[in-house]
Amino acid sequence: MTPRARMIRWLLLLALSLVLLVFVIQQRQQRSADKDQEAVSVIASNSVALPALPRFVTGLESLPHSLQGADVPDGLQMDASGQLILSRALRDLFDFFLSAQGEEPIRVILTRIQAYIRNHHLSPQAETQALHILDEYVAYKKATQNLPDSSTGPHPDLAILRGRMNALQSLRKQYFEPDVLQAFFGEQEVYDQYTLTRMQIMQDNHLSPEAKASALSEALDTLPMQLRQSMQPQIQYESLQALTQDWKKRHGSAAQLRQIRENLVGAAAADRLDALDQAQSQFDGKVQQFMQQRTALMNNASLSPDERQNQVDQLRSSMFTAQEQIRVHAMEQEKATAPAASGAGAL
Fold it and tell me: To the nearest whole percent, how much of the chain has pLDDT over 90?
């Protein structure tokens, strides 16, 4: 190849390289411009989707409708050294504001809670701790949404419920220090365990009603004293109702019913329940006797309607106290309307 030919070839290669270089530079500039435009679009989009947050001072300005007029839980307390007192009331405070989700965005609610904390004249360390725990609590609440659904319908599955409880306890340990965990959930976890134990006892078909009553009483004793005292009347009432129904289905004896009551509520309360049963039995006997005589009077053709009613009223007054007459009169009305209701149902 001649020197002239080599020179021409070299110049062609150089020109081609320059063209390629210009093309690459243009492509990079275009991609950079596209990214800048995309960033501007995202910023513009976010500015539309996320309006400026309100400026709260106390956190109580323009409260959502559901919170208006309600008392804010007193959960921001300090000890003598200026440390935040950890309590269930602090969790209740967070839940108070968080319950308004749906009425205002979560970011507004958090800004409201933060302002409420900062306006509460806490020491710097207590304020910092309260804000930190708030962040932990919100993160925990969000994490619970990823737990499997524990709905089991009208017949609870103990395995599913226990699995849910264990998952919650494990999750709490991930988000909270032990002292916060105890303050926020300690009592609740004890009650949750009691509830599962109670359900297990009630669903155990191998236990007699008397044995269930004894086991339920022992389970109740595991609750903290203050919680047990506040809930004991309602718990015992519900247990008595359920066990009495079980006893009836089994056609149990009076002695078995007495044992159920003693095991569940003690001998003294069982005595009072026996007395109530006796009084109810006597009342039922009088009602039955009254209804029979009332029927005879109402069917007496020799009496006018007014005379029949007067004699029924006199009979009622002679057999029952004023308080009992109210109940008996209601029974009469129920009996009088029963045929009409039955006929209507037949149609």
Answer: 62
User: If we measure between CA atoms, which residue out of 140, 128, 54, 148 comes closest to residue 91?
Assistant: 140
| Residue pair 286/277 in contact by the 8 Å Cβ criterion | no
For 111-166, write each residue's pLDDT tens digit: 999 999 999 999 999 999 999 999 999 999 999 998 877 665 666 788 889 999 99
Helix (H) or strand (E) holding 315: helix 305-319
With contact defined as beta carbons under 8 Å apart, do 199 and 208 qualify?
Answer: no
Burial 12-44 (b: 16+ CB within 10 A, else e): eeeeeeeeeeeeeeeeeeeeeeeeeeeeeeeee
Q: Tokens 């007054």 label which residue?
A: 317
Q: For residue 152, what are the contacts with CB-CB under 8 A and spacing of at least 6?
A: 160, 161
Give the separation between CA 20 and CA 163, rounded to whole angstroms.
Answer: 65
User: Residue 304, class by beta-carbon neighbours within 10 Å (0-12 exposed, 13-18 middle, 19+ buried)?
Assistant: exposed
Region for residue 153 given its phi and psi (left: phi exceeds 0; alpha: psi -120 to 50; beta: otherwise)? left
d(CA 78, CA 231): 29
**Hunting for tokens 């009996």 — which residue is that?**
335
Question: What are the CA-CA distances from residue 291 to residues 36, 181, 296, 317 (Å)?
Answer: 92, 62, 9, 13
How far apart, in Å, do the first and last CA atoms of the chain sit? 115
Residues 256/258/263/268 CA torsion (nearest 10 deg): -170
**pTM of the predicted model as reported, rounded to 2 decimal places:** 0.65
**Distance of alpha carbon 314 from alpha carbon 51, whole angstroms:** 77
DSSP character for 204?
-
Q: Which residues contact 221 (CB under 8 A, 6 or more apart)?
A: 228
> Where do the domains of the chain lie?
70-144, 158-266, 267-317
pLDDT at 17 over 70: no
| Phi then psi dihedrals of residue 58, to 5 deg | -95, -20
What angle (nearest 5°) sits at the alpha carbon of residue 185, between those of residues 128 and 242? 160
**How many other β-carbons are positioned within 10 Å of the β-carbon of residue 259?**
20
